[in-house]
UniProtKB/TrEMBL annotation:
Gene3D superfamilies: Endonuclease/exonuclease/phosphatase. Residues 14-416 form the Endonuclease/exonuclease/phosphatase domain. This is Endonuclease/exonuclease/phosphatase domain-containing protein.
Length: 434
């Protein structure tokens, strides 16, 4: 994500055409059998990624069915074919393949099926949900191997788990994969991630870059290399409170106050001298930060604070994404009430909610777009993107991507660096997937 305002020499690098050319070059150079992406927009997906089929030959594709930004999995049908339709879960998507090159065509061959779980786990202070998402995804893969495909040894299925984990080695979802279980005493972000032990239905998975088959020096490199903004945004006086109950710094609060009064034009009936943000003011603000009214958690939270009442949903509905999983025609649309007022306190609370969800870069973008950019001077590094494999596999090669400069930039099209690996089965005569 580029933070405005951009210098003249950066403008070209921020365009989608330029970034798309980098993606096309990188993906074409690697020429993987299967490609997993995260955070693609369903509104422009077909045009954004037409090059995957037209120029690179990825004629198989599945786009996750929900969300503003979604995972997508591409594959080349002359190398792999779907064994069953893709399965969509909470922020994970499972594709089960049969390899065409070197694999047996018999349905009872346990070694011909490969399962790829494309993940974009929940961001922010949601460790428990990330664990549940990973448990659901792995369980789906295991049950598919055992019950649907009738594999001879489903506990040793060929499984690759990859994507954006939105957390590092300290997270419960990573603990679950690598250790084989996560217990109630495991704490993430100051909170319990599960009330009872969660145990993998298969042996622990292996972090591809850390396996014994890969020659390496030092720790795996960061995959998230971005402007360091957290220290500029969060009050650091009490380290523990900053972690469990973050608050904005005075400088950021002052910025929000200036932004608020730059939009406020509405006189309230009971306080004629007091100007606040009414419906039209809020819509102008939302259009700048989200391009249109009706999208984003800022819109939903502002609407509620201005008097919109969320309709009741039948108990037991599963939650997926930001809204209940009710049918679209059963859910009245969210709207901003005509007479609604967004007070200064509530305006700040909208962004406090974003902060507590870990949406630091979204807040930074809003501040910059609204004329109050943070004075960024350093780089934040973390390893959020990973590739795991089951113990029936071994990595034949792993490709790291390195960047010293904050991403995206002239050479990197995304704020997340790509991770790539090629895998082969550990039994003689097994197939290989990259």
């Amino acid at each position: 994500m580029y933070l405005p305002p951009l210098s003249n020499d950066q403008e070209i690098f921020a365009t989608w055409d330029y970034r798309k050319s980098l993606l096309r070059e990188r993906i074409g150079l690697i020429d993987a059998d299967v490609v997993c992406l995260q955070e693609v927009s369903p509104l422009s997906f077909e045009s954004d990624f037409a090059f995957m089929n037209d120029e690179l030959g990825y004629d198989g594709v599945e786009l996750f069915k929900k969300g503003r930004f979604r995972p997508a999995t591409f594959w080349k049908t002359d190398r792999v074919t779907l064994a069953i339709p893709p399965q969509h879960k909470d922020r994970t998507m499972l594709t089960s393949f049969r390899l065409l090159d070197g694999g047996s065509s018999t349905q009872d061959n346990n070694y011909q099926y490969w399962h790829v779980l494309n993940c974009h786990l929940q961001a922010g202070k949601q460790g428990g949900r990330r664990v549940r998402q990973m448990v659901e995804g792995i369980t789906t893969a295991f049950k598919t191997a055992k019950n649907t495909l009738k594999e001879k040894d489903p506990e040793n299925l060929k499984l690759i788990v990859c994507g954006d984990f939105n957390g590092g080695h300290e997270s419960g979802s990573v603990q679950y994969l690598e250790k084989g279980s996560v217990r109630p005493d495991f704490i993430e972000d100051g909170e319990q991630v599960t009330s009872k032990e969660k145990v993998l239905p298969i042996p622990p998975l292996m972090d591809a870059v850390s396996t014994k088959w890969i020659d390496k020096e030092g720790d795996p490199p960061a995959t998230l290399v971005v402007p360091e903004i957290i220290s500029l945004m969060i009050e650091q006086k009490d380290a523990e409170t900053a972690y469990t109950d973050p608050q904005f710094t005075k400088d950021v609060l002052d910025s929000f106050h200036r932004i608020y009064y730059s939009f406020a034009t509405t006189h309230t009936p009971d306080e004629s001298e007091k100007i606040q943000m009414g419906k039209a003011d809020v819509e102008r603000w939302l259009t700048i930060i989200n391009l249109r009214v009706g999208r984003g958690t800022e819109f939903r939270n502002a609407a509620k604070l201005m008097g919109w009442v969320e309709p009741s949903v039948e108990s037991g509905e599963e939650m997926c994404g930001d809204l209940p999983n009710a049918k679209k025609d059963e859910r009245p649309p969210i709207f901003i009430p005509d007479d609604g007022i967004l007070t200064l306190e509530n305006f700040v609370s909208v962004y406090l909610d974003e902060l507590r969800q870990g949406k630091f870069w979204g807040i930074a973008w809003d501040l910059a777009a609204l004329g109050e950019p943070l004075d960024v001077k350093s780089v934040f590094r973390a390893r959020y993107d990973r590739i795991y494999c089951s113990q029936s596999l071994e990595p034949a090669a792993v490709l790291d991507t390195l960047s010293e400069a904050a991403c995206p930039n002239e050479f990197e099209p995304s704020d997340h660096l790509p991770v790539c690996a090629s895998f082969r089965g550990r039994k003689e005569g097994d197939t290989q997937l990259r």
